[in-house]
């Protein structure tokens, strides 16, 4: 009988060993996928792709157990040979091959030239062959950056006393109402896919005080734009015992500062590959909704068409204004009109036409919506009634407030939009592994 103790000795060398000095001029073993083959005649360079990056190996005719013409891009190999120093090679190392073991062989040639520095193909083609396109170093680097954002979100909120929760994505009704719900039959009962974890995270404030979640949300919006997805990942948090909705904005600012520091330290390679310049996060300006509209109207001679909402062009102009005037990459727009916010948004006690809420714009695109919530049971019921809404389906949510809740608020960050803006892309699908929109359900 065998017992596992959590250890496993690999017969291949680690990336750190390959880049170190202990194996120089000695036999080393490397595993990876053939990223490209550069045949120079008597010598060929086999570039192997691993999770850490690309590693150069050297194939010399007559010195290897397999003929070069048997090797193909996409093969996975184990190679043995002598590790040597070479200034011209990536990382200053290369492996001179003596023995090759084929681990797997592709049945067809690759549909995309993934070895090119930049994929010279359309977004549609990249999405159709997504698992292959992401083998390109630049393409996959985008999602390492996205990993860093989520990692920073989790780590920072853990450090601030938050508890991670996981809420259901199938429910009886949406948190925000409206028509943008995916409805379906759930064992012969009507059900919807969650628009957000809003009700659940508010209820959990009464349990843990501070909670967060990273998970999918679904919006049945018939948009076919470069900024909308029908399924996206939301980074949500909710915090109790707040003094002001500005405390939520301060928490997000702290997260952004932590994320920038983490990316700079742990993801420098990907930042370099993608030529990303990290945004300024030390001080983020905040401006009232109505004041923001006035500023851009005056400076850019643009008529205010809708006094109750921001049009995409206005968001872009607000981002431009604060970049030009204050060199700010982010800007908080506060006090959105009450009629454009959900029923649970706390109205401004000084002017109930507006709410104690905000959006965060990043280079002129909304990436966050948040604010203070109504925590008083009677006030919540009054607002529901004032909007002509029914309480049916919200009984358990309302019961939570019936039994006491602290002042609280929170936010939701669109992960793909935040990633898109950080990458400098102009289509949110570039920042989504497998996008779901009006026209795409595969792969």
Beta-strand residue fraction: 25-35%
SS content category: alpha+beta
From the alpha carbons, calculate the radius of gyration and give it in angstroms.
27 Å
Discrete helix count:
12
Sequence stretches where pLDDT stays below 50 over 5 or more residues? none
The major sheet is characterized as: 8 strands, mixed
Q: Secondary-structure element order, as H and E?
A: HEEEEEHHHEEEEHEEHHEHHEEEEEHHEH
End-to-end separation in angstroms reads 43 Å
The overall strand count is 18
Strands ordered across the widest β-sheet: 6-10-11-18-17-16-13-12
Q: How would you describe this protein?
A:
The protein has 443 residues and is α+β, with helices and mostly antiparallel strands. The protein is built from twelve helices and 18 strands. The strands form four sheets. Strands 6-10-11-18-17-16-13-12 form an eight-stranded mixed β-sheet, with helices on both faces. The longest helix is centred in the middle third of the chain and has 23 residues, at 137-159. The mean pLDDT is 94.
Question: How would you summarize this macromolecular structure in one to three sentences?
Answer:
Helix content is 30%, strand content 27%. The chain is of the alpha+beta class and 443 residues long.
Q: What features would you highlight for this structure?
A:
443 residues; alpha+beta; 5-stranded mixed β-barrel; 27% strand; elongated
Write the layout of secondary structure elements.
Blueprint lengths: L14 H5 L7 E13 L3 E8 L2 E8 L15 E10 L7 E12 L18 H6 L1 H4 L3 H23 L3 E2 L5 E2 L11 E4 L2 E5 L4 H11 L1 E9 L12 E10 L4 H22 L1 H7 L11 E3 H12 L11 H15 L3 E5 L12 E2 L2 E5 L1 E6 L2 E8 L4 H10 L8 H8 L5 E7 H9 L20
Parallel strand pairs: 3-5, 6-10, 12-13
Antiparallel strand pairs: 1-2, 1-4, 2-3, 4-5, 7-9, 8-9, 10-11, 11-18, 13-16, 14-15, 16-17, 17-18
Helix pairs in contact: 4-6, 4-7, 4-12, 8-9, 10-11
